[in-house]
Amino acid sequence: MENDAHSVLCYDPTTFGILMACFSIFCLTLIIGGTTRNQKLVLVLMLVCSLWVMAYTGTRTAFALVPIGAIFYAGLILNRRVFAIRAVLAVLATGFVLKSTSSGVIYRIQSAFKPAQDDSMNLRLENQKKIQPFIQSHPLGGGLGSCGVWGKRFNPQSELSKFPHDSSFVRMAVELGWIGLILYPVALLCHSNRAVLFHPMPGPLIKAVYAGITTWTFMLAVACYAQEAILQLPMNVIYNVFLALLVTLKNFDPAFREAQ
């Protein structure tokens, strides 16, 4: 029962690492946004803890998502102070990546920013190159569940069932073809666009939450290139809750209700 409970909380260490990466940037958006001093202290503690445990998951995708999310957030709010802080952190992070170390945890973090030396990434790129002719010649793909776990279960004799897709985008390209691959990022872009439209809300806290949700969904979209980021528990539940919040959160802003 204990193992079953753990599997419900997070599908695997990779999912947990991505969750902590997104959560850390979400805390950052609230720290900069309209929160009180005591709330900021709690958020700083949560931010540090989430980054700490993320480091021990050993998830290279999560390591790369943190600076990507921070850069996206800085570009979203266009604040000079945030840009200055980001520049300082970028310099410190560059030094951290380049320094030599004997720590296995730090070395794995550094390896996330050296993809040319990552055997796992090189293998994925090689697999993607092999499957490209099939994707190009099948605009509608091989059908839902034709690769991965479902492919092995329902169609084990197919060559597609043996293909290690390792990515949401690659899986969609194989199963839904290049047409489905185009439609899915468009849908993600529409979700993020809705958040951007509501982002200039007068209420500072609501505005910060909108920025945090937008950044979180963007980070998940980027993570889909390397992992099955959105489909695993609990990320799929969180993502769908966020989609609902993008529509309803504005109703909690007193200034918006008065404008209505």
Percent in helix: over 70%
**Structural classification:** mainly alpha
Strand content: under 5%
Average pLDDT level: 80
Description:
The protein is mostly helical. 73% of the residues lie in helices and 0% in strands. It is built from 12 helices and no strands. It has helices at residues 2-9, 13-32, 37-57, 60-77, 80-98, 104-111, 119-137, 148-154, 168-198, 204-223, 235-248, 254-259. Helix 2 runs antiparallel to helix 3 (37-57) and helix 4 runs antiparallel to helix 5. The termini are far apart. 32% of the residues are buried. Residues 1-8 have low confidence and may be disordered.
Secondary structure layout:
Layout: H1 2-9, H2 13-32, H3 37-57, H4 60-77, H5 80-98, H6 104-111, H7 119-137, H8 148-154, H9 168-198, H10 204-223, H11 235-248, H12 254-259
Helix pairs in contact: 2-3, 2-4, 2-10, 4-5, 4-10, 7-9, 9-10
Features:
260 residues; mainly alpha; 12 helices; disordered N terminus
Précis, in short:
The chain is mainly alpha-helical. Helices cover 73% and strands 0% of the residues. α4 crosses α10 and α9 packs antiparallel against α10 (204-223).
